[in-house]
Design brief:
362 residues, 3 domains, six-stranded mixed beta sheet, six-stranded antiparallel beta sheet, globular
Length: 362
């Protein structure tokens, strides 16, 4: 049967790029995990879906359905990570909505953008990108303005006239340099923590201020155990959470690992390394004042404050990791402001809440 052939090819070409085309989705004929090196295509269920991640690549997003009126061919790149604007010269370019979506897909950025009106501009300078849209935000708006494109969301800009496009292009390089300077030390420390988690057999995926601990299972696709790396004071918070509203905070990483069955292998590896490394293990604990915990291993905590800071960092990380500016604060063009933020550790000063637009209204 097909699954027998699939298994044999998997044994021989597991780390080669193989395209698997089937009528039904993989879970209907093989329940093992997807091979992250392969590309899977399917149809059958009339439900458009695609996923490009470090776990798997699935294209099932061109299904016709029962009443389709627009039928067309699609294409995909064998390399998951690509840049459709790589050969564009530096400058200000008017692009289509489809190009904007395709660019984000090539950068492995998950997003949805449904707005039909407006003119989209791609600003490119020295491989750094900034996307702006000139549109009437709503029917109540007095006229058209420039907005920052943050994935599928829009952000207000203080300089929002069409002629301000040249201003953003002229300052794009300097802005990116200052963001990189601001995040350099923080990102380096976070990356070391991520590598340690991977060494234990965990995920180590970084998103914003958060490092995922255990590898997600095939069905759910996300982690419940995390490390929050606070850019304000450098403190690491090990915690378990089902949602963003509440969490169980643990006094240290070892306690977190030992408390959950999904981290059992990681806990064993941690104990083994702890014996071998003696005092060389990184300190991953909630607080240096451990006597505050007394005999408690975990505490209940609630509120979304962790995620507000994380959203700021994640927006800035698009600049350092994917060369996309998705948060614009005029103050970041000022070297003195950047240095003050670094010294005062008030990272939340970067965001002006008045410039934020509720994503539900986009």
């Amino acid at each position: 049967c097909f699954n027998t052939i699939y298994t044999k090819v998997l044994e021989c070409l597991g780390k080669n790029r193989v395209i698997v085309l089937t009528h039904v989705k993989k879970g209907d004929w093989n329940t093992e995990i997807h091979n992250p090196y392969w590309i899977y295509l399917n149809g059958h269920n009339h439900q458009n879906f695609y996923e490009i991640s470090d776990r798997r690549t699935i294209y099932a997003d061109n299904q016709i359905g029962y009443r389709a009126k627009n039928i067309g061919l699609k294409y995909f790149y064998c390399d998951n990570d690509y840049d459709i604007f790589a050969y564009y010269q530096d400058g200000v370019h008017e692009i289509t909505k489809e190009q904007y979506i395709d660019f984000n897909r090539g950068k492995l950025v998950s997003m949805s953008f449904k707005r039909e009106d407006g003119t989209i501009y791609m600003l490119k300078r020295d491989s750094m990108y900034l996307f702006l849209i000139y549109c009437q935000y709503s029917k109540r708006s007095r006229g058209k303005s420039l907005y920052l494109m943050n994935g599928g969301k829009l952000g207000r800009l203080r300089r929002n006239r069409l002629e301000d496009l040249s201003y953003y292009y002229d300052n794009l390089e300097k802005y990116a340099e200052n963001v990189n300077q601001l995040l350099y030390r923080y990102v380096g420390g976070q990356q070391k923590l991520s590598e340690f988690i991977k060494h234990l057999g965990g995920s180590g995926k970084i998103h914003g201020c958060i490092v995922d601990v255990e590898r997600p299972n095939e069905l759910e696709g996300f982690s419940y155990c995390h490390l929050f790396v606070n850019p304000i004071d450098g403190k690491v918070t090990p915690y378990f959470a089902y949602d963003v509203k509440s969490r169980i905070v643990y006094k240290d990483l070892k306690t977190l690992l030992q408390a959950h069955d999904s981290c059992k292998l990681m806990a064993n590896n941690y104990l083994r390394i702890e014996k071998e490394a003696a005092n060389n293990l990184p300190i991953v604990q909630y607080s240096g004042q451990m006597e505050e915990w007394e005999n408690e291993d975990a505490m209940y905590d609630e509120g979304s404050y962790l995620y507000k800071i994380s959203r700021i960092i994640k927006s800035l990380q698009y600049c350092t990791e994917k060369n996309i500016v998705r948060l614009w604060n005029e103050e970041l063009l000022n070297y003195d402001f950047v240095n003050r933020i670094k010294q005062s550790n008030q990272i939340d000063e970067i965001v002006d809440d008045r410039l934020m637009i509720d994503e539900k209204s986009v």
